[in-house]
Every structure is written in C-alpha cells, then in structure tokens.
Specification:
α4 packs across α11. The chain has two domains: 144 residues, 2-Layer Sandwich (Nucleotidyltransferase, domain 5); 168 residues, Nucleotidyltransferase, domain 5. The protein has 341 residues and is an alpha/beta fold. The chain is globular, with a radius of gyration of 20 Å. The protein has eleven helices and ten strands. It starts with a strand and ends in a 20-residue tail after the last helix. The longest helix has 27 residues.
C-alpha cells in the first residue's frame, strides 16, 4: 500500500510517500520532502505562528506533488492519506488538514487524522523493521517531554511528562541567552563538550519520588540567574562550562526517569523520538543505560527525528489498519488529545 503523510504542525512543511505492508514486513520510504522555515523565523528567535501558517500555505501543494513525483506514483495510487491533526500550532495544522481533506476527497482516498506524538514514535518503525510493540517510548521535542508505554501500534499510555516547559524549549532558551542563533539546541549540544564538568551545578529537572515527571522551569531560571550574575559582575561568561553543566544535568535527569520507567514496567525495548532525540548527549547516555540493563535501544537517524511527513505516513498507516477513518469534518486541534481548544 502507498501511504501519503502530510506534516504542518509547526515550522516544517513536509510530505512523504511510503510503501507499507506489515504482513510482508515492508516499510519503505519512497520520498520525504521537507520545507524548513528556520531561516524565516531565525530573526525572531523563535517560531511566529502567523508567519508559519502563511509559509505552509505557500509550500504544501508543491511539496506534496514533488513527493508523489519522486515516489513515481500519482494521487490515485494512494491507499490512504495521513495528516497531522493535533497537537501543534492551530493555524499551521489547519493548512495541512484542509489540504489533505481536499486531496483525499477529490481522489476518493481514505483519510486519517494523526496524533503528532504517535507520529514521532512511528518514525522508529521506518528505521528498524524488526521493531514492534510493546515497548517504552520517550518523546523529546520543543513542545513535548513524555514517557509512554506503547502497547500496540496505535495505542499508548502516558506514564510521565513535563509539568511545565518541554526539554527542547529549555535547551533553545538558554542557547539563545548565550548568543546562539535559533534553533540553538544543536549548538548548545556541541558547546557542552568544550566545558569542564563540576565547575557549575544546576537543580535537576527530574522530580523526586516514583512519578515519572519532569519540571524544566527551575533549571532554566537557575541557568538564567547564573548567566546574569556573570554579566552584572563584569566577569566573562563561561559559556562552555554553563552549557556543559546544563546539558549534563538535563541528560542525567532523563536517564534517571527512564531507568525508573524501565524498572517499573519491565520493558526490554526503549524508543527515543522527537526533535531532541538528535541530541548526542542523550543518545549516548541512554544508549549506555540500555546496554547496561540489556534493553534494546531504538532511536531514528537525525533526519527522522525532526518533524517530517514520513513519520506521519507511518502513524497514519497503523491508524488505518486499526480501523480509524476521518471525514470531511476532520478538524485540527492544539491539544494533545485532539479535543477542541
């Protein structure tokens, strides 16, 4: 079956065509076109929702037909269209949802609304043909930091999450204050290797107790206060040492909660997904944890960690197999559960 995935939840417009046949073990990416808006939003230091929505309008049609052309098929050959319907920026989501509804209706193709978080997890299916539920999943991105028990391809239960800011926002905010261009998370990841461990300390975002929850507001405030103290006293800001302590503290917190989650659930497989899954410190630390605990560790290549149509198509395919269908009344939602705002 050929599956089209459309992604427009934030600042990437993406379309992808997959060839999927679960019974035959086929999970193949035929095309995955991504139109990034990073350069557009860089001057503002973050995503401007209205600008993002307009950019999606300009790009969605052309990249979809590029994806079909690269895959060597026409719209009539598609077996299902999957589109990110929630969560995300509501104006951006509406562009992809309305375009997909029109495309599916005009060509008589089944349509499925996709949960963006499930899509991030589904990216791992494309990277690892052997991967099947049940497993533990960690979703880390600019808007999400959550731990899930994935029980079936289309069913998962949240075990823990952040109670305030997301891990990606925490990285980007401090990177911006340190003078790094948007998005700064990757630059902060690199700079952390140049700093000295133990010079500075920050409070852990891993909440105490058995709950698998995080809070990143405290470490952000502590890092901001540290930076301001150096500035106000006229001292040179030790950017590398700050990056080192900040990234290590957050990494250690994630490892702590994942260790707890593995112990509590007894799962023998862990998937890390989302844009922040490209962070090299997290990949290395969780890889070591899983190796020591004899747990299988699955993390997609960096190109599949960020928002992309391939992950949406994969999630759409499994939702379709589970019997999900959407009509022309499909709507977008900013909420994680797809409920009205």
């Amino acid at each position: 079956m050929f599956v089209l995935g459309i992604e427009s939840s934030c600042d990437e417009t993406s379309a992808s065509v997959l060839e999927m046949d679960e019974k035959a073990g086929v999970r193949r990416i035929l095309s995955n076109i991504v139109a990034s808006q990073i350069d557009v939003h860089a001057m503002y230091g973050g995503v401007v929702p209205e600008i993002a929505s307009r950019a999606h309008v300009e790009a969605v049609s052309s990249i979809t037909y590029r994806a079909l052309e690269e895959a060597g098929i026409g719209a009539k050959d598609l077996g299902v269209v999957g589109v990110t319907a929630y969560p995300g920026l509501i104006g951006a989501l509406l562009v992809g949802v309305n375009f997909s509804k029109a495309l599916a209706y005009a060509n008589g193709i089944p349509l499925v609304g996709v949960n963006h978080i499930k899509a991030h997890i589904a990216a791992a299916y494309l990277e690892y043909p052997e991967l099947r539920p049940p497993f533990l999943a960690l979703v880390v991105s600019g808007g999400h930091t959550s731990i899930y028990s994935v029980d079936r391809f289309n069913e998962m239960t949240e075990l823990g999450s952040t109670r305030d800011d997301a891990i990606g926002e925490a990285f980007d905010k401090i990177a911006r204050v340190l003078g790094m261009p948007y998005p700064g998370g990757a630059a902060l990841d690199r700079l952390a290797y140049e700093g000295k461990e133990g010079v500075l300390t920050f409070p852990s975002p891993a909440l105490a107790g058995d709950a698998l929850d995080f809070s990143f507001s405290g470490i952000k405030t502590a890092a901001l206060n540290t930076i301001n103290r150096f500035v106000q006293t006229g001292q040179e800001t030790p950017k590398a040492d700050i990056a080192c302590a900040y990234v290590k503290t957050i990494t250690d917190a994630v490892v702590k909660k994942i260790r707890q989650a593995l112990n509590q659930t007894g799962q023998k497989s862990l998937v890390m997904a989302g844009g922040v899954a490209a962070n090299t410190h997290l990949r290395e630390a969780l890889g070591t944890l899983c190796k020591n605990k004899k747990v299988n560790f699955y993390v997609p290549r960096p190109q599949l960690c960020g928002d992309n149509g391939a992950m949406v198509a994969a999630a759409g395919y499994y939702a379709y197999l589970a019997g999900e269908r959407a009509g022309t009344d499909l709507n977008a939602s900013a909420q994680d559960d797809g409920s009205p705002d």
